[in-house]
Amino acid sequence: MSGKKIAVFLLIAIVAVFAACRKDAPENPIDVPSPVPGSPVVFNLDSVPYATLSHYNFFAGNIAAQLPVTGVLPYEPITPLFTDYAHKFRFVWMPAGTKAVYESDSTVLDFPDGAVLIKTFYYDNVQPAGDRRLIETRLLYKKAGYWKFADYVWNADMTEAVLDLNGSFTQLTWTDALGVPHDENYRIPSEVECYTCHKYYDQPIPIGPKPQNLNSMMAYADGPMNQLAKWEAAGYLQSGYPANIETVAKWDDPNETLERRVRSYLDMNCSHCHATGRHCDYRPMRFAWSETTDPVNLGICVPPEDPIDAGQTYIVAAGNASRSMMYYRISSTAEAVRMPLMGRTVRHEEAISLIGEWINALPDTCQ
After folding, report:
1. What average pLDDT score do residues 52-75 get?
2. Is-contact 274 299, C-beta < 8 A?
3. Residue 3 lies in a domain
4. Fewer CB within 10 Å, N side or C side of the chain?
5. Is 149 in the same domain as 229?
6. What pLDDT, in 10s, does the model give residues 240-254?
7. Averaged over 253-263, what is the pLDDT?
8. Maximum distance among all alpha carbons in the chain?
9. Are residues 57 and 199 part of one domain?
10. Can you tell me the distance from the alpha carbon of 92 to that of 68, in angstroms, rounded to the nearest whole number?
């Protein structure tokens, strides 16, 4: 037999051996969920939460750049939740063929199973290099009709974020637009802490994605568009929702009235606790946008239940911020006094100024 024929014979034999080995091996030796059709996102409700954020494939290329892949849609509430001056990237993703459903202007959209809300917290101008620093990425996902939490903590190199539901602190120094440095001991919440704010009676829930908070224009990669219309166009919101939605104000918009700006700020930062079935249900205030047309729900001329400070005669002492328990609490950083209870360890100076201005402008009607 010639050398050429021997080589061909050996090649055929090797291929046959490998083919036999492949036939005997299991067809799926590694349980890796397949991406949902139409989107490269990997999300299997039987396997989540994954150990690392990159496993989901929410972001293209360098995940620290937070560039969403097809099907991951950015969104932005009109008035955001304040979290110690941290910035946030927010995204939503849903399985192919599923949609959220409008229920009312002021309630969270009814999301399908498999829906994921993604929120990354970060700071800019972090010292010493003045760079961006990603801190954590929180996921809320819906499984069998119930919302679940998953929190991912970023490593120092921002190459990966790892699942951690125990809570921790991250220390950093960042500078503001005026070059003033701020030392931050940022709290990454535990699963229990997440539940404190994200609950309705005993069930976990989202807070922000309500029609009243999303009925605004947003700049997308393909051009500006109303967020609700964008969700509908993307197949993420069922059509037929009202054309006229009672919409919150942008809290820092000087063209809005003081009252609307304050009501909007309280809605986003306080109403998730001060509402029926929530953490501060037992308090008289109801800070939801839809309920604060009633001055009693705002605490105007309502005596405080707890004698934290004798000088605070009402929750809101109309015409006198210095005697208002609301102003006292939002100005404090003491853990036993401050409001909101969680998510804030520093003073939100701009909000304190806004609420103080609003209280002082109210007619002095308290007896």
Report:
1. 98
2. no
3. no
4. C
5. yes
6. 999 999 999 999 999
7. 97
8. 114
9. yes
10. 10
| 298 plus 182 within the same structural domain | no
- Confidence (pTM): 0.86
Domain check: are 150 and 72 in the same one?
Answer: yes
Angle at 304 between CA 82 and CA 327, to 5 degrees: 35
Range of the domain at 86: 53-233
The tokens describing 145, both together, are 């009709």
Q: For the chain, what is the domain count?
A: 2
| DSSP H or E stretch at residue 89 | strand 87-93
- 300: which strand partners? 316
Query: Can you tell me which residue has the tokens 């050429």?
Result: 4
Same-domain check for residues 285 and 335: yes
Q: What b/e readout covers 82-114, taking b as 16+ CB neighbours within 10 angstroms? A: bbbbbebbbbbbbbeebbbebeebbebbebbeb
Which are the contacts of 28, defined by CB distance < 8 A and separation ≥ 6?
Answer: none
Q: CA distances (Å), 215 to each of 1, 75, 166, in order?
A: 80, 11, 35
CA–CA dist 12, 8 (Å, integer): 6
Q: Look up residue 212 and give its two tokens.
A: 């009243």
The helix (H) or strand (E) run that includes residue 356 is helix 349-361
What pLDDT is stored for residue 2 in this prediction?
44
Residue 106 lies in a domain: yes
**347 backbone dihedrals φ, ψ, rounded to 5°:** -75, 135
Residue, of 312 and 307, whose pLDDT is higher = 312
CA distance 74 to 289: 24
Residue 152 has what pLDDT?
A: 98
- Residues 226 and 259 placed together within one structural domain of the fold: no
Comparing C-alpha atoms, which of 72, 115, 70, 117 is closest to residue 94?
115
271 confidence band (pLDDT: 50, 70, 90): confident
